């Protein structure tokens, strides 16, 4: 997400860019946070270390952001899609929050977004 954040910073500052399209591959838009990286960290390490510090950057970009989604948009990937101003979903797009099966809850913005909508 740090790299995506840097790219969004650059696009926002570039006067030649009017809108931003975020996409993935045909198979997956994004499968969410790296479970392997998360699994051995305690709550204190993740929270104190600002593990999700840049996750909501998509929602703060001051240019229209379009999420072009195909394949899996899971966990944080689903949240990324929901942060876009417009979601353009292909027929094979699948949205979900499977992290509840790991005993965790959507980490960043999903619950707030659902309540607001
Ligand atoms: C994305 C799925 C549906 C793909 O399933 P499949 O095609 O069967 O492929 P897999 O063999 O399951 O996966 C291939 C390979 O990718 C690794 N992987 C997939 N997702 C992640 C991930 N989120 N983090 C880390 N690694 C991931 C998987 O372990 C395999 O690696 P190998 O080394 O080859 O074994 C399926 O993989 C799936 O459902 N993934 C979990 C999605 C998920 O739970 N996302 C939420 C993450 S928590 C989060 O986002 C916090 C914010 O709330």
From TrEMBL:
GO BP annotations listed: fatty acid beta-oxidation
Pathways involved: Lipid metabolism; fatty acid beta-oxidation
InterPro entries referenced in this protein's UniProt entry, alphabetically: ClpP/crotonase-like_dom_sf, Enoyl-CoA_hyd/isom_CS, Enoyl-CoA_hydra/iso
GO CC annotation: mitochondrion
Coiled-coil region list: none
Listed SUPFAM superfamilies: ClpP/crotonase
One protein family per Pfam: ECH_1
Record-stated family: Belongs to the enoyl-CoA hydratase/isomerase family.
Subunit structure: Homohexamer; dimer of trimers.
Reactions this protein catalyses: a (3S)-3-hydroxyacyl-CoA = a (2E)-enoyl-CoA + H2O; 3-hydroxyisovaleryl-CoA = 3-methylbut-2-enoyl-CoA + H2O; 3-hydroxypropanoyl-CoA = acryloyl-CoA + H2O; 2-methylpropenoyl-CoA + H2O = (S)-3-hydroxyisobutanoyl-CoA
Domain of life of the source: Eukaryota
A molecular function (GO) term: enoyl-CoA hydratase activity
Protein name: Enoyl-CoA hydratase, mitochondrial
Organism: Synaphobranchus kaupii (Kaup's arrowtooth eel)
């Amino acid at each position: 997400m740090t790299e995506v954040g840097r790219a969004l910073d650059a696009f926002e500052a570039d006067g030649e860019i009017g809108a931003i399209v975020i996409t993935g591959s045909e198979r997956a838009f994004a499968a969410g946070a790296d479970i392997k990286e998360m699994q051995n960290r305690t709550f204190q390490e993740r929270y104190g270390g600002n593990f999700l510090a840049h996750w909501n950057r998509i929602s703060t970009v001051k240019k229209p952001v379009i999420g072009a989604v195909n394949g899996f948009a899971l966990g944080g990937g689903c949240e990324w899609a929901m942060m876009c101003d417009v979601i353009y979903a292909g027929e094979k797009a699948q949205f979900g929050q499977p992290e509840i099966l790991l005993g965790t809850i959507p980490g960043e913005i999903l619950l707030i977004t659902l309540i607001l909508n």
